[in-house]
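Incident review: delayed structure delivery

Summary: a single-chain prediction request sat in the queue longer than the usual turnaround. Root cause was a stuck worker, restarted by the on-call engineer. No data loss occurred. The affected request and its eventual output are reproduced below so the record is complete for anyone auditing the incident later.

Affected input:
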Amino acid sequence: MAQIKDLSGYLVHTEAHGPFDIIGDVHGCFDELVELLQQLGYQVNYDKKESRFNVTPPDNHKTVFVGDLVDRGPDSPKVLHLVMDMVEAKQAFCVSGNHDDKLYRKLIGRNVQVRHGLEFTMEQLSHCSAAFILRVRDFLANLPHHILLDEGRLVIAHAGLAEHLHGRHNRSVRDLCLYGPTTGETDQHGLPVRLDWAANYTGHAIVVYGHTPVYEPCWRNNTINIDTGCVFGGKLTSLLYPDHVITSVQAHKLYAESVRPFVQHRASA
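Output delivered after worker restart:
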């Protein structure tokens, strides 16, 4: 299998064909994640003796997570535990989101601001063993910033990525994958003003991403944002590739208030 190495050393698989169940930003919403997986036909069981999740996917399916596993929601450690077990069992791929990256930097002792939900994750992790936290640190350290699947026909990047950068690995590409392009200015909420990169996307590869919550997933120029704001009382959404079937489960409650209103896009060709 042809493979490309990410900066972290993680192998980016280019010839895995799926089917893939691509899941949007989880943000610690463990119950909704399990509910969505079960709705997709996965069996999820926890083995107390082995302290691990045993997952049985539908035939030949793999899960792909678009990042932001943690922060704001009720149980980031359980989400991490489930995803780590699935990745370790080669049942899933996962890219890093900006919240995952910030947690990693905190765990290695970097000076980061503990806000925007990180304070909840750190409190939740304080009840976990040192061994588990070390495992989380190592897992996050090895997450790629984007992956190419199905021989490059499918690209997963947390905040999306323009075609000419697919498969490229440097610091600026990494930052675009984690945060998306911005103008350098801030809005009335004190948040970065983001550029709508998908509006001008002309690539042949499908790009599936999250990062900016939307009311409903909407295809735009061969891209789709599947972050439907579960942690903000929205939904947790998956996209089945290559069949393009969208499946969602409703958030069980509103866990955090969104500072910025959800984006509402119109579909484009």
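Verification: DSSP finds six helices and 16 strands in the chain.
Action items: add queue-age alerting; document worker restart procedure.
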